[in-house]
Amino acid sequence: MNQRFSKSLPGILLLFxxxxxxxxxxxxxxxxxxxxxxxxxxxxxxxxxHEPLVYTKHARCRMACREITxxxxxxxxxxxxxxxxxxxxxxxxxxxxxxxxTGTDGHRLRIVIADCESNDKVxxxxxxxxxxxxxxx
Length: 137
Hints:
Blueprint: H1 3-28, E1 29-31, H2 45-50, E2 54-55, H3 57-66, H4 70-79, E3 81-83, E4 96-102, E5 108-115, E6 120-127
Parallel strand pairs: 2-6
Antiparallel strand pairs: 1-3, 3-4, 4-5, 5-6
């Protein structure tokens, strides 16, 4: 192998990895606003902002373990983004939407909501900055 090429290979690989990271982070999330439709156009994100949410037993357990409040969840839904890679329009029995944003303590949170016809359910709550050991069903 050419010695000059072998010296530049680590730099080329680093540049390639940096470009991949940029591409994944730039295309992973989109703002949740009235004027910016999500890839999942059948989801009415406005209703999650105004209708009361039902919290599953699992979500309540995760909230308690991770010390996340209903107010923080509402804040993430109101001002966060939808992570389309973590959302699943084909999920059964209801499509799921993954909201991401910053909680009041500064941690990045992911809130997964089941977008059901009768009522919307908070399925789980994830602290993206810190691992927590939770014993939830």
